[in-house]
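Progress report, Aim 2. The chain analyzed during this reporting quarter is listed below.
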Amino acid sequence: WSLKTERYQWWKPMKTIRIELPAYHEKQKIIAESPKYHRINIAACAVKWGKTLGCCKWLFQEAIENDGFKCVWGAPTYRQSLIAFDHIRKFIPAQFIGSQFSINKTIMRIEFLFNGSFIDFFSLDKPYNIEGNAYHRFVLDEAAKMRQEGFASVMTTLTQTRGRGWIISTPLGKNWFYHKYLIGRSNVPDYSSYNF
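Predicted structure tokens for the chain:
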């Protein structure tokens, strides 16, 4: 009988849902395009450039368009990861919460019930909490303010999937973010850097 139930749900007609996202501004379009060509994308951006919102849209679209994608958002603190969580939560129309999307603020996860994808949100002040997962897409927000161990921990979660994504920040001295930015400027395979 469980086989019949699974079969019935598989053949059940799909309901089309429409979600409208805010448009990218001209330079934010690079956020949507670059990960198609490079795994690790680094963006050094001015304050209030729109890096967080642009990457929220990109990550949300990746989770919608790819069945079973595991995505992760990392930030230096809980409050900064909550900003991205709230942006993405607001993309979802209220009538779809519960039926098409599950939003769990306790574990900081948004699930896409119609395709099995999800987005986890982590504070990387304790970077080892993220290890052990296997993610397909990632964003590290305000990376210049986090320890390099946060970057290293996220990279371990991409090994199995060859995941790709963004490291975004307003520059803050010559720290690990600065050095990764220089790698992206040096034609190293899989890396690309942008300055906005």
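The chain is about 30% helix and 20% strand. Strands lie at 40-44, 70-75, 101-104, 109-112, 117-123, 137-140, 164-169, 191-195. These observations will guide the mutagenesis work planned for the next reporting period.
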